[in-house]
Amino acid sequence: MSTPWLVTGARGLLGRDVLAELAADPDAVVTGLGREQLDITDPAAVRAAVTGHRVVVNCAAWTDVDGAERSEAAATAVNGTGVRHLAAACADSGALLLHVSTDYVFPGADRLPYPEGAPTRPVNAYGRSKLAGERAVLELLPDTGRVVRTAWLYGAHGPNFVATLLGLAARRATLEVVADQHGQPTWARALARRLAALGRAALAGTAPAGIYHGTAAGRTTWYGLARETFRLSGLDPERIRPVGSDKFPRPAARPAFSVLGHGNWLRAGLAPLPLWDDQLTTALTAPEFAALAATARTSTPRT
């Protein structure tokens, strides 16, 4: 029997990969709604969209971190109140909800990976807005809601660090990259696969409700990610120069340490995501990244 899935935020970096992943599942009947088709801040529209679906994967989000610092109410309307509308609609209809959240709910002051149950304390407006959404899911869907925190997400379908880096490589001889922020670069397609697997496990009753950390295994810095991206793309990693975060002041504070633990995947009978550099190796074979790398290799960047 086919299972109806709903993917919100379906035109975004992650949403498009979730749609592609579910399209390969013969048992899934998938509806993908982008922001133009579904405004999750509209409760009536959310109720109508959720009706008839068994699993909802929420990829809709305000993702402009610095913009949230200037417009926290607007960010919270999407990341907090909008998620509450989704959770309430799922509670009414009996649908399962997989909600994508962020490492930014943590302060980033530790030096050991944050387990799923670690105390939260966001250091910026974006993190506070996402924490409001998490709390709505856990409050309204204690038995059928799953929060999946991710971090340092990159992929083929939208602006992200890896694509920006390769684009700049064609124009600049050297690039300065922050070396004092630590995290887990995560390929959107790998996370999409894990979300699909988690949804199927939830339907089967083998994945407990609660919080999961959907980040790559291992850890690095933005500087380390940049060097490895260059190396794998046939570019000279010595063109990457390390700098401190103070070189690039931003409106929103960034956590210095965004490494997450992955213990709850074992409870669901699922392995954590692969190592970050293994994910990157595979991701860079995508046509979108390969084209950027080819342009960079044949360009004469300015010094």
Task: Give the tags.
dTDP-4-dehydrorhamnose reductase, six-stranded parallel beta sheet, 303 residues, NADP, alpha/beta, NAD(P)-bd_dom_sf, Rossmann fold, oxidoreductase, dTDP_dehydrorham_reduct
What is the helical fraction, as a range of percent? 40-55%
Output the strand order for the largest sheet: 2-1-3-4-5-10
The counted number of beta strands is 12
Q: What is the CATH architecture annotation of one domain?
A: 3-Layer(aba) Sandwich
> In the CATH hierarchy, what is the class of one domain?
Alpha Beta
Structural class label? alpha/beta
Report strand %: 15-25%
Distance between the termini: 60 Å
Number of helical segments with 4 or more residues: 11
Q: Could you name the CATH homologous superfamily of one domain?
A: NAD(P)-binding Rossmann-like Domain
Give the overall pLDDT as a whole number. Answer: 97
Order of helices and strands: EHEHEHHEHEEHEEEHEEHEHHH
Question: What is CATH's topology name of one domain?
Answer: Rossmann fold
What is the approximate shape?
Answer: globular
What can be said about the biggest beta sheet? 6 strands, parallel
Which regions have little confidence, pLDDT < 50, spanning 5+ residues? none
> What is the CA-based Rg, rounded?
19 Å
Element layout with pairings:
Blueprint: E1 3-8, H1 13-23, E2 28-33, H2 43-50, E3 55-58, H3 65-70, H4 72-93, E4 96-102, H5 125-140, E5 145-150, E6 153-154, H6 161-169, E7 175-178, E8 182-183, E9 186-187, H7 188-204, E10 210-213, E11 220-221, H8 222-232, E12 240-243, H9 264-267, H10 276-283, H11 287-298
Parallel strand pairs: 1-2, 1-3, 3-4, 4-5, 5-10, 6-9, 7-12
Antiparallel strand pairs: 8-11
Helix pairs in contact: 1-7, 2-4, 4-5, 6-11
